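This part of the workshop introduces the protein records we will be handling. An example says more than a description, so a record of this kind follows:
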Amino acid sequence: MLVLAGIATGCAVIGVVQQWLGTVLVQRFVSAPVAPPQARAPVSVLKPLCGVEPLTEQALESFFLLDYPEYQLVFGVQNEADPVLPLLAALRARHPAREVALVVDATQHGTNRKISNLINMQAQARHELLCISDADIHVPPYFLDRVVAALEAPGVGLVTSLYTALPGTPALATMLGANQINYSFLPGALLARKLGRQDCLGVTMALTKTVLADVGGLQAVANNLADDQVLGRLVVARGYKLTLAQLVPATTVPEADFEALFRHELRWARTIRALVPIPYAASVLQTSLLWAALAVLFAGGAAWAWALLLAVLTVRTLAARRIDTALRMPPSSGPWLFLLRDSLSTLIYVASFTGSRVDWRGQMMQADPGKLR
């Protein structure tokens, strides 16, 4: 039992060190100097839509309010009865000067409905520079300035962005979802990039029509669940760089109940496991509080093990506060929430190995490894 306690202690320390290093990287990323774009080239922003969730109107309106000289908004739905259409009509009436194109087309081009929607929309995009963005992303007015500046760097073919969580409800499940994004995903993504990973995050994907055509167009990812990751790999394989825009927008966390949150996070988990199985297997170390609790159990409640648990909890809480301060977010997690979060993350981690099917907006899909063909 003492050997097991030692192993659990080592895992807890590794996990909490990872989280602290990731927190430092978040602080550095946010405070890094920002260069404006040399030429503010016109942009077509593609927004595939499907249904209405909490804060959908606020997220979409943030794109009507961008401070950029010339850009076009292209919205697409696949159902003429989609409830987002009246909301979009109200936004267009509120901002009549904004150039907007709307595509309503149910044509399918593969198993990925989002990509099919984008393929249907693409003909309406007037500009060479494309920015594909999820419907639930809230962006600051300088969003396109930062994206275009990153895309202007030599050799860059694709720009993506990190993101934080904006709770869509006050429910406990929502707060747990936000906790995962803000304090595990965000620092973990920067640490992975520091170690050499070049992940494309689908909340923002900016590239030119020329580069998109060079990698086979959107049709090349029409049958992939992780279309963003596969597109990133295609771009890198063609010799381009994949880089981060110097900003951190927010994504809505809409899940108000644990069943919906579990389905969503299980989809993420199984997708990541299929794409990068070894790093995903090692991600169990991120649940540092779980390992510290196991150390207490294996050590028979020894004082040193309780001290370890308290130390890990303290570091996790301080790291969260540093991220909140760096991103100017209100505190959204207390120590007790980290205990619940690590318990839920462990359940999802175990469940991710029990199958490869995922639920994506009511459509069952297969988590695929995203290999280039």
Remarks:
- The first strand starts at residue 43 and ends at 48.
- Residues 2-31 form the longest helix (30 residues).
- The radius of gyration is 21 Å.
